[in-house]
Design brief:
Blueprint (H helix, E strand, L loop, with lengths): L1 H18 L6 H20 L9 H30 L8 H23 L6 H5 L2
Helix pairs in contact: 1-3, 2-3, 3-4
C-alpha cells in the first residue's frame, strides 16, 4: 500500500505546487483568477462585493488569494511528506505558521494591485 500513499502524495504535491506561489506563472494563471472568481461568487450573494474598489471586494479578493496560497502550501507540504517518508506524519503548527507567513507576504502584493486598480471584479473588465 506504500505505492498508493506515494501516488496520492504526488497528486497532492502537484496540485499544491500549482496553487502555491512558488512558480512564476501561478499567480497570473491560477491564483488571481481563482481569487477573482471567488470574489465574484461572493458578490452574487453579498452585493457590496460586486462594486470595484469597494472594501468588501478588496477583502474578498485578498481572502480568496490568500486561501489559494495557503491551500497550495499545505497540499505541497503534505504531498511531499507522503512521497518522501515511509510513515504518515502530522502537519505541525510550526509548518502551518510558516506557510501562513509566506502567504501573507504575497498577499501584500495583491493588496497593492487592488489599490492600483489593476484587479477588479470580472464584469468590470468587460464593461465600457
Amino acid at each position: 500500500m506504500a505505492w498508493k500513499r506515494k501516488m496520492t502524495g504526488g497528486v497532492l504535491g502537484v496540485i499544491g505546487f500549482i496553487l502555491s506561489p512558488l512558480s512564476w506563472w501561478n499567480d497570473a494563471v491560477v491564483n488571481l483568477p481563482l481569487a477573482l472568481v471567488f470574489a465574484s461568487l461572493v458578490g452574487l450573494v453579498y452585493r457590496p462585493v460586486a462594486e470595484p474598489n469597494s472594501t468588501a471586494f478588496n477583502a474578498t479578493v485578498i481572502l480568496g488569494y490568500w486561501l489559494t496560497n495557503i491551500l497550495g502550501f499545505v497540499l505541497l507540504h503534505k504531498g511531499a511528506q507522503q512521497v518522501l517518508s515511509n510513515e504518515q506524519k502530522k502537519y505541525s503548527r510550526r509548518e502551518l505558521l510558516k506557510d501562513v507567513g509566506v502567504s501573507l507576504a504575497y498577499t501584500a502584493l495583491i493588496v497593492f494591485l487592488i489599490k492600483m486598480g489593476i484587479l477588479k471584479p470580472i464584469s468590470k473588465y468587460f464593461s465600457n
